[in-house]
Amino acid sequence: MNPYAIQFHGINIKWYSIFILAGIILAWIFVNNEARKFEIKKDFLLNLVFWAVVFGIIGARAYYVAFNWDYYSTNINQIWQIWNGGLAIHGGIIAGALVVILYSRKYKASGLRMLDIAAPYLLLAQAIGRWGNFMNSEAFGPITTFEHLKSLKIIPDFVIYGMHIDGFYRTPTFYYESLWCLLGVIVILIIRRLKYTRIGQQTGAYLMWYSVGRFFVESLRTDSLMLGYFKAAQIMSIIMFVVGIVLYLLPIRRPRLENLYKTEEKIEIVNF
Question: CA torsion angle for 227, 233, 235, 239 (degrees, to 10)?
């Protein structure tokens, strides 16, 4: 695969960057549309999303660099070259979520509601972003055969041919994760439409859904970040899954009509 979308007079733009940007833009459009239902101030939302994205990218890169410090400690100039790949989504999730919670608290808004608004569209952005891995010929699984990939039926031919890397066909784990994320978008939007969905439950569903998929996909990947003898993404997936269970089940203990996501009340942003 050619990782470059544009190469012109020294200007090199990779598909990886384009897919990441496309995911962010599309997620913003949907988040903004959902926020209007609660009459959330656009300036507040724009600032919130901007800082969440900035620190999310920083967190994703810092996480990746930390687990590859043996390499980056002798190649300091490459730490900032995120256009070459090397973003760990778990670092982005942690950093982005912290920004949303802290920023929302500053203006007396519900951080959990803001996370709920973003939850399905974050999965959408992740699904799109994974195609940047495809163009970079990374995030793949073990060696397989053309016949096996063709027999799976759900894998398009162009993906199969794109998985011919260094003389071998590879398992397209990026593709599996992208499909899982897209299915998760549908699942969370269904949860959103339920009559008694509480604040925090969509965030909990996101954490559980993504963690289950990532845990099994990670078991196939051959380029995993490691923590000792264990895959870091699988450890983080277990932690996130537990947090997701708590966020989803804890609101159920409250009265049935309390803290509903679909409240028709205007969401006041104080002192913005």
Answer: 140
Tens digits of per-residue pLDDT, 204-233?
999 999 999 999 999 999 999 999 999 999
The string of pLDDT tens digits covering residues 10-22 is 788 899 999 999 9
Residue 76 structure tokens:
């300091």
Phi/psi at 4 (nearest 5 deg)?
A: -100, 130
Q: How many of the other CB atoms lie within 10 Å of CB of 22? A: 15
What is the four-CA torsion angle of 223, 226, 231, 233, rounded to 10 degrees?
-80
Rounded to whole angstroms, how far apart are CA atoms 7 and 15? 11
pLDDT at 138: 92
Q: What is the pLDDT of residue 255?
A: 78
CA distance 78 to 145: 34
Q: Which position has the token pair 């994974």?
A: 130
User: pLDDT at residue 265 above 90?
Assistant: no
SS3 for the chain is: CCCEEEEECCEEEEHHHHHHHHHHHHHHHHHHHHHHCCCCCHHHHHHHHHHHHHHHHHHHHHHHHHHCHHHHCCCHHHCCCHHHCCCCHHHHHHHHHHHHHHHHHHCCCCHHHHHHHHHHHHHHHHHHHHHHHHHCCCCCCCEECHHHHHHCCCCCHHHHHHCEECCEEECCHHHHHHHHHHHHHHHHHHHHHCCCCECCHHHHHHHHHHHHHHHHHHCCCCCCCEECCEEHHHHHHHHHHHHHHHHHHHHHHCCCCCCECCCCCCCCCCCC
Kindly provide the b/e burial profile for residues 167-176, where b requires at least 16 CB atoms within 10 angstroms of the residue's own CB.
Answer: eebbbbbbbb
pLDDT at 270: 65
